[in-house]
Specification:
By secondary structure, this protein is α/β, with parallel strands linked by helices. About 35% of the residues lie in helices and about 20% in strands. The N and C termini lie close together (about 10 Å). Keywords: Amino-acid biosynthesis, Aromatic amino acid biosynthesis, Lyase.
C-alpha cells in the first residue's frame, strides 16, 4: 500500500514544543520507526507550516494513493480550503491528532475537516498515526 502522512503547522517542532501536550519525541524518529515496522508498504512524509502547500500536497497525492493520514494542526479548526481539497480528491483521508482535542480549548472541539474525512483519531499521542495506518492496512 502507498500511504502518505501529511503534517501541518508547528508539527515540525514535535519533541521541542509543549512536551506536556505533545511528548518529547520528534516526528522524524517516529516516522522512521513506522517505516521499519511496515517495510512492505510505501510510507511517505510531508510537513508544511503553509496552508497552500498542504493543499498542493493533497492534490498531488490524492488521486494515486491508498490513504492519507493528515494532521492539519490548527488548520483543522479554521480551513475550509483544506476541507474542500479533501472533498475533491479520491484517496481517503484519516484526520489525526496527537492530543485529545476535546480535553483542550473549546475552539479545538470543532473540525472543519472531519466531515470530508474517512474518520478521526485523537488523543493517543504519536500512536494516533499508527492507528490510522493500521486502519488503512486492515481494509
Amino acid at each position: 500500500m502507498k500511504i502518505h502522512i501529511i503534517n501541518g503547522p508547528n508539527l515540525n517542532l514535535l519533541g521541542v514544543r509543549e512536551k506536556s501536550i505533545y511528548g518529547d519525541a520528534d516526528f522524524i524518529t517516529y516516522f522512521n520507526t513506522l517505516q521499519q515496522r511496515y517495510t512492505s508498504h510505501s510510507l511517505t512524509y510531508f510537513q508544511s507550516n503553509k496552508e497552500g502547500e498542504l493543499i498542493d500536497k493533497l492534490h498531488e497525492v490524492g488521486f494515486n494513493s491508498d490513504g492519507i493520514i493528515l494532521n492539519a494542526g490548527a488548520y483543522t479548526h479554521t480551513s475550509i480550503a483544506i476541507a474542500d481539497a479533501i472533498a475533491a480528491i479520491s484517496t481517503p483521508v484519516i484526520e489525526v491528532h496527537i492530543s485529545n482535542v476535546y480535553k483542550r480549548e473549546a475552539f479545538r472541539h470543532k473540525s472543519m475537516l472531519a466531515a470530508s474525512c474517512k474518520g478521526v483519531i485523537a488523543g493517543f499521542g504519536l500512536d494516533s498515526y499508527r492507528l490510522a495506518l493500521e486502519n488503512f492496512l486492515n481494509q
